[in-house]
Amino acid sequence: MGLTEAPLRLPTIDIAPHLEATQSNSSERAAVSKALHEACVEYGFFYLDISKYVDPGEPEELTRLAREFFFLPQEEKDKISITLQDNARGYQRLKENVTNGKADNHEGIDIYRPVGNPDKSKTLWGENQWPTIPGFREKYEQWVEKMRKLGMIVMEAMADGLGLKEDEWKEFRSQVEDSFWYMRIIGYPPLPNDYDGFSVGAHKDYGCLTLLYADPTRSALQVFLHRSGHTVTDVNGLPDEQDGEEGVWIDADPIPGCVVCNIGSMWEVWSNGLYKSTLHRVIHRGANYRIPFFFEPNFDANVKPLPAAIAQTGDVQVYKPVEYSKFLLSKVSYNFSLEGM
Ligand SMILES: N=C(N)NCCCC[C@H](N)C(=O)O
Ligand SMILES: O=C(O)CCC(=O)C(=O)O
Ligand SMILES: [Fe+2]
């Protein structure tokens, strides 16, 4: 059946009741937590309505600043190249990022949580490199702070949706409250029709939660629902049960006032596979900018299935523990190399 079935649509969830917890909105909050739970079981993807949290002018200003940067001559952009730092923080040229052995048709700036003792000889452990455009750093740092707080709010709502008790949440929270967050500012030129690759090839996100501010271009971000013949393994390197015979790519077109949200592989581990981190890819035929913010675990988090999740998945721990830092490093070191794929 696959492609002829009824259109699949990702759910939209308004986070407003969780922005301010009051006695009177506790049933609304519970409904939101339940909706998050269902979206994560079913899709691993949803729209998060943040219109009561973010003024639309804010990401529009970020887009304007991004345009100003990406319109600079190549040699100006290369002054903050990732190769001058820790091979992760800074600017990457068009086709420098690699996914599934193919160069991606995008350029971007990657910013990570700063570290106290930077050492650029260690991958990921250098310093962020910001454009010198007036206001750029300041505006983007404000955005990071906003998204980081939002990430924590959503994590708490999700923990509630999964049924964690107060003390279980406290334990869980300690694994993410010093999030090793990550932000990308991505410039997409139109993907040529004859290009043997993608704007971003099919992948899963690595950590907890991605909060994507997307430009209006349609059919750009595509989400893989129900299974195909892809040879993808899960976070533990096991064959992924998502990879059956059939599947369908659906468009996750932007909705005004919402960020597109998806869960990363660490949620798959915490939930013992109850929540799936879903494959997605980008085929961007327009020319514009997108800003994903990745709310991730603490760098040193040891991620393992939560007892509450094991209890809901047949009382058997299926997923092995994962050290987030090792997992992240293995991913990032493949992102900029066509070797060893
Ligand atoms: N979730 C993150 N960090 N997204 C960044 C890009 C994903 C594609 C990357 N080349 C890859 O193969 O993973
Ligand atoms: O630009 C997009 O729509 C999504 C980008 C993405 O999936 C990523 O950077 O991980
Ligand atoms: Fe992604």
UniProtKB/TrEMBL annotation:
Keywords, in A-Z order: Iron, Metal-binding, Oxidoreductase
Keyword field contains Metal-binding: yes
The family this protein is said to belong to: Belongs to the iron/ascorbate-dependent oxidoreductase family.
InterPro entries cross-referenced by the UniProt entry: DIOX_N, IPNS-like_FE2OG_OXY, IPNS-like_sf, Iron_ascorbate_oxido_reductase, Oxoglu/Fe-dep_dioxygenase_dom
GO molecular function annotations of the record: metal ion binding; oxidoreductase activity
The keyword Iron belongs to this UniProt entry's keyword annotation: yes
Pfam family name, one: DIOX_N
Annotated protein name in UniProt: Fe2OG dioxygenase domain-containing protein
Location of the Fe2OG dioxygenase domain: 179-297
